[in-house]
Here is the input.
Amino acid sequence: MVEHSINVYNHLLKLNSLYGLCTDEETLAIISLLHDVTKIGCYKEDFRNVKNDDGIWEKVPCFTFDEKFAFGGHGGKSVYLIQKYMWLTDEEAACINTHMGAFDRPTGDYSVSSAFEMFPLALLLHTADMLATCIDEKKATEVVTENKDNELEKKIEDILSYCKKAIDNGIDKELVYAVIAENNNEKKNPNSIKDIEVADKVMTALEEKITWSTKKTKKTQKAT
Here is the structure.
């Protein structure tokens, strides 16, 4: 939420410099950085069931919305909470109250458009909020996903290299395949690994099993 609020603040500064609607830097900071205090304490860590690529249900971590204080409106709740600690101007209160635009208003409710006409800065805050949500944070998510994909690809390459080296050094390839399958939903091919945690588990198991197998082979050869 902090990252989102800062993104909104940065967009609002750019928009305001373009349209020149507000000369009070404090107002710009207040409405952008505090517009979503309504969300504080409303999310908790939880788990949900999701089918993986193999069609098997598994639990994955997530956040669930758990409203402790149902005030009745997203923006309005922020205004109420803020004013328990500091005074807001009419413009600041209107901006925060309508920052969701029409997304949290019933059909036929024209109070948002009326507020935008009376306080144009409110429209800039709503636009900044949308830019932060739909562009900045979407790009950030895509970067994280791309980084995870690259990391998984590198781990799979390491597993393939390790397996080849082990087999070239005389380790039974069936043992290698068995270790991979045991830790990868019965699939022998490392390229079928879809998760970084699974890749780490496979590599750890390979290192443990192959080291044990190598020692056993050496002892057998020595005894012979």
Summary: The chain has eight helices and two strands. The beta strands are 43-51, 57-65. The chain has two domains: 2-143, 169-223. The radius of gyration is 28 Å.
